[in-house]
Amino acid sequence: MDKTKPPSRPEKPERPERPERNEHRARVAGGAGFAFLGRMGALIEAISVIAFTWYYGAATFGLFAVLWSYVKVSTAVSDAAMTTALQRFVPKANGNDPELAVGYAIKFSFLIAITIAGLTCYFAPNLAGVISAAEDDADHLISVIRIYVWVLPFWTMVEVGTAAIRARRKFGPEIRVRVFYEQGLRLVAAIGFAAMDYMTYGLFIAHLVSVVLSAALALRLVAKHYDFGKVLRAPMTGPMPRAMRQYGFTVMPANLIKKLFSEFPVMFLNYLLPGAAGAAAGGYYAVARKIASALQAVRMTFEYVMAPLAAEKDGHGDHVALQDMFAYATRLSVTLALPFGAALVLARNDILATMQPQFQTAAAAMSILCAGRVLEAATGPSSAIIEMLGHRSLPAINGVLGLITLLLLGNWLIPLYGVTGAAVAAAAGLNVTAIAGLIETFFIFRLWPYDRHALRPLIVSLVTSGIMLSLIPASNHWPVPVGILGAVAGLLISVMILVRYGLNHEDANALGRIGKLKPLKKLAP
């Protein structure tokens, strides 16, 4: 009897393709890749911090950290939330409206910044009385304030200018401004001034020079992506300026509170402790925060990307696409933050060993801030969605809840535990705000980021992170640089395992080249 093989069945893909869903995830992942590189400027700044502490000492670096904190908090006022407003107005604008929005945002925020800088310059003697500094720096503190305050208008221009580029959904160009120019020029100039023995003024003048040049480059980027003539001629009155101003002033308190979360512990430590001790304590916390801010890059990356995309999808009424992007961004955010945070904690001793010995004080604070940032990453870009789509008062309410938590815990813990207490207060406050945003996103917009697709990548990340964390007791006895090499290797292996065994094929494919780490499923013959 002639036995013939039955005709083979046509091969079927592992799961039906969803081109629209893949496109949405690819946009999130692609934009996040560029934005992540921009946020990784925090790593370059961390390298700068190491150099600054060696060249200028703990007290002068601490004074710089405190004054830079005051500038960043002031920027949250001077930009009048135009950075957020541009993400809302530009994606929905037509015709000449994008140029009108950008022109108004740049001019309005710069005028406010110039006004604040002038008032600060005039009242510098009064401000100097509430800032702790080492004896050598205290004699020059008024002059330092009057010079350094002019960073404010130019930094405001950098913030608003790069926000205008992000509003065009161009997430790469700001990398050159924020990383290679602002960070790189500051480092080179600061080392140069230290070599010339400008030990009090050098660090502040170096930062001013780098920010002025970065502001010019930010404007150049605006001219490339917008009609610059129309930007310059944008009126300061009319329906759009009025709408942007009203929206900005409503959102500004929430943005100010975000800055206070980051900067208030530095200022509070400086205020509570007198003289060089106060300046140094602010510096220790600034170091811990700066290292942990590399982890913050994960969540902020997706917030940067999701803000204009959320406004766009809401404008098109595409709730399904918004839900899919929100879930995907949150899955990546938390599953990348877990091993990244574990790696930073594992490497903490080696990182701090590159600085002067007294900076080992920041080790516990660094670990606490990393843990807080991982928990915050688990809420995904919910805060960005609330800012773009929610009621204008919600970000401010969430921020106030978190700030109250920070103030209450800080007032209790900082006098007892110093830098470590400040870290606990900051981490708690951040997460009160983040969790409030996640809850509101669910109840208001019926968006929830966790489903069955999140379970496997979460388990994989928890296992790989747990393995790294289990090495921490042994790492206390490792010679430098075994800890940091082990952390880098552990992070790379964790990401490879996550992509290969944690993410599904749709999630992995959206990552582009990195997604190729996940092999295609072999079909049975």
UniProtKB/TrEMBL annotation:
Q: Which GO terms describe its cellular component?
A: plasma membrane
| Chain ranges passing through the membrane | 102-125, 145-167, 179-196, 202-223, 268-287, 325-347, 396-414, 420-445, 457-474, 480-503
InterPro entries registered for this protein in UniProt:
Poly_Biosynth_Transport
Q: Region annotation Disordered: residue ranges?
A: 1-24
Q: Which domain of life is it from?
A: Bacteria
Q: Where in the cell is it found?
A: Cell membrane
Q: Which UniProt keywords apply?
A: Cell membrane, Membrane, Transmembrane, Transmembrane helix
What is the recorded membrane topology of this protein? Multi-pass membrane protein
- Could you tell me what this protein is called? Membrane protein involved in the export of O-antigen and teichoic acid
Organism of origin is Kordiimonas lacus
